[in-house]
Amino acid sequence: MNELQLKVLELLKEDARRDAELIATMLDVSVEEVKEAIAAMEKDHIIVKYATVVNWSKVDDEKVTALIEVQITPERGRGFEGIAERIYLYPEVKSVYLMSGAYDLLVEVEGKNLKEVASFVSNKLSPIDAVLSTKTFFILKKYKQDGIIFEENEDDHRLMVSP
User: How far is CA 67 from CA 16, 38, 107, 110, 118, in A?
Assistant: First the structure.
């Protein structure tokens, strides 16, 4: 990966809506160089998706998100890969991370309600033979995601009191 590609990645990570013309102007390079850099990174699966960060608390169609710590027994010859793959293929699963520490995988799951997420854990995740234990944490409120702060602090309009 070259320096131009790194700079283009940083600009697209900040705002995926930036087009090649704007990026070229920002980096003082030709539009063709930017288009070639983006095309190469898409081909090499460095750029895999252009996504929108949504503040679901502002939308009527709220979803329930849970983070699940999963402790597993690695498979002989494949380690954590096969189990992680089995888990991430479920449509409810948004992310799976191999972790260091007290648990092995961190699984992010999204559902319509608490019951749907609980059903996923009890009927799909826990029955997997290699799964030793799970701990589920429901996200109550998101303050910041992907570098985006959802709600700014309100200014304090109280009068200062001094002795």
Answer: 26, 33, 6, 9, 12
